[in-house]
Amino acid sequence: MATINSNGTAGGLWSATTSWNGGVVPVLGDKVYVLTGDTITVDGTYVAGDDTSTAINISGVLKASRLVNSELSVRGGLIINAGGEFDYGKSADIIPSTITAKIRLNDSASLLDGKWGLTCEVTGNYYVYGASKTTNTNLTTQLAIAGTTFTVTDATNWSVGDTLVIATTSPGHTGVETELLTISVIAGNNITTSTGAVNLHEIDGRVGNLTKNVKIEAFNNSYASYQNLKSNATTIANTREIQHIELNAMGDNSNQAKYGGFRFDAGGRAESAAAYISIGNITCNGTEQYALDFYNFYPVRITATDCAIYTTVASAVYARQGTVVTLDKCVVYKAGTGLTTSWSQGGVNVICNDCWFVGCTTGFNNSSGQGFTFNNTVFASCNTANRFGWGAAPTFNNCDIGYLNGSYNGSCVYGFEAVNNANIVPLFNDCNYNVTNEYSTLTIASGGFKLNISNKNVDPSQQEIYTPYGILVRDNVTFKTGVASLRYNPLSTTSPLTNEWQIFAPNNQPVVVSGYIKPDTTGGLVTNIKVTLSGLGITPATYTTFTPSDTNWQQFVVSATQTTGTDGILTLTIECTDSTGGELCVDGIVAPVAIAVNSGDFGYWAGAAPAKLLASNFTSADDIWNKLSADVTLTGSMGELVKTTEEKVDDNQALIISM
């Protein structure tokens, strides 16, 4: 077949012979060049390309009609060259809601996964902007088995024929219950579908509209295609704008350059993120690999908003090679993994705000991430909510690890999994838990792994720490003094479960520390109970005279004098190992030299751990008062306790006066 160039005199409609050099409209088998300075507007249904990697080359502008529906099937690769422009809608010139614009990729005489796709070169420009419609919402009525009618919170601009994804609301790993339905009737937010639901979906379940009027999809759904958008130039500006686009069967696993329905390849340049005006309202129905693949974006952050992803086996979002990315209000309705980070340092300072990961085998897979933060994010109906490897510690704030709201029970089978040699310290703050098991594996992690759950279920009296050698829990039932003790649940017969406290040690003065332990023999016996006071060059002082079978409170005392010439901090360590499933409670730790700020009754906890006994000089009463004043709004602190007590006293005095 032929090589056909645009006319070189501004182009025109694809359908017009005058738009092409030689007066011939390209067809299947032709290689196509849109030349610099020309704009070719796709105004109908066409097939072109010569089944090579450069089947359609854009150095000018390839544009979708805003007046008629269009569909372009590409046999071979579609390349947006330096300075070229792919215009399938812009914020100032969207594809109208009455028009559909479609690109079909990876057509070939011999179909293969990921054989051909779309590549936007470093200084190419890529615009896709469909008509606005609500992407993600939630059920406000129950959708019954075999039911066809339900109501959602917001169905703005939804239409008959739209494809909806209805997330599972069942407990356990039930992504199989996420299903696709088609709108047959719509009246406001009231929806009727053409077929009945196979599964029950409860109120508050997530609903996504996968249909957009701009579509990029594989020519054959059995053979995935891809898009690779490169952006790392420093000399020529390029622009990317992506809103309200539908992807179908995009993202191939044969080559990393083809991984994404969208692969955002930044090349590690700061200006790369600036090239993107916006990314949002992307829907993805089916992928072999990643719907969204963020690669090498640093140090400037890139943000994706309100995306909806449904896939049967693959991962939904990939953050790798130093990428700094934010996901806002994105929903993964089903996937092998919701969010994966790996590849060298993985994602860096990645933030997820108000996102949902539903029906995934693993919600978040942290293979090598460097500081992820999840805010108000939900992991529901997953097998494992979070899987932790190595890297910097992720933080979860006000998240739901397993979801529970009324009849909606989206519990997860496991709260977390620590993979072989995991070494990070995840922190969960004020998170709700609805899991069958707290963890699937723990003991294979490295000694550096420590998962802290602070204020579990938004309750300042619930604190838990998970390590490879056992679990530490705030026990609000068994205590010697105050309101709580620290319960040890060791899991190893050889590696001790430990916890440490800091003890203020004045120079050349004796430091005497005492406390109590109480074995719990309900499940068996603990062994190798040991208390050690160490640091600052002293000979460690130890106490081991305990009786593991005695369930009464047993006192210990250790003492030492440090002579470094300056005041300092000693470390108190209490440890034990497991014999046959026993546990141990620790309470009443006091250090007389630090009595002014003694918190040995564990009345104040921070980051899931008891507050350290002392971290500064104890001589100033003003310091103590300032600390209490600063903490009056800190949930669970001694400052808050003093303030609450004072308010109760004032209320009682007012009551007495009024009588």
Descriptive labels:
659 residues; mainly beta; Jelly Rolls; 4 domains; twelve-stranded parallel β-barrel; 55 strands; disordered C terminus
Describe the 3D structure:
The protein has 659 residues and is mainly β. The protein has four domains: 1-131 and 212-283; 136-208 and 301-468, no CATH class; 480-619, Jelly Rolls; 623-659. The chain is built from two helices and 55 strands. The strands form six sheets. The chain has a 13-stranded mixed β-sheet with strand order 24-27-29-32-35-40-43-44-45-46-53-48-51, with no helix packed on it. Strands 7-9-18-20-22-25-28-26-23-21-19-10 form a twelve-stranded parallel barrel. It has a six-stranded antiparallel β-sheet with strand order 12-17-14-15-16-13, with no helix packed on it. A hairpin with a 6-residue loop joins strand 49 and strand 50. Helix 1 crosses helix 2. The longest helix is centred in the last third of the chain and has 21 residues, at 638-658. It is elongated and about 100 Å long. The model is unreliable at 594-600, 614-624 and 648-659 (pLDDT under 50).
User: Could you give the count of β-strands?
Assistant: 55
Approximately what portion of the residues adopt beta-strand conformation? 35-45%
Mean pLDDT reading: 88
Radius of gyration: 31 Å
Helix content range: under 10%
How would you describe the oligomerization state of the chains in this entry? single chain
Q: How far apart, in Å, are the first and last alpha carbons?
A: 102 Å
**What is the number of independent domains?**
4
Output the number of helix runs: 2
Main pleated sheet: 13 strands, mixed
Shape: elongated
Low-confidence stretches: 594-600, 614-624, 648-659
- What is the strand arrangement across the widest sheet? 24-27-29-32-35-40-43-44-45-46-53-48-51
Q: Helix/strand-derived class? A: mainly beta
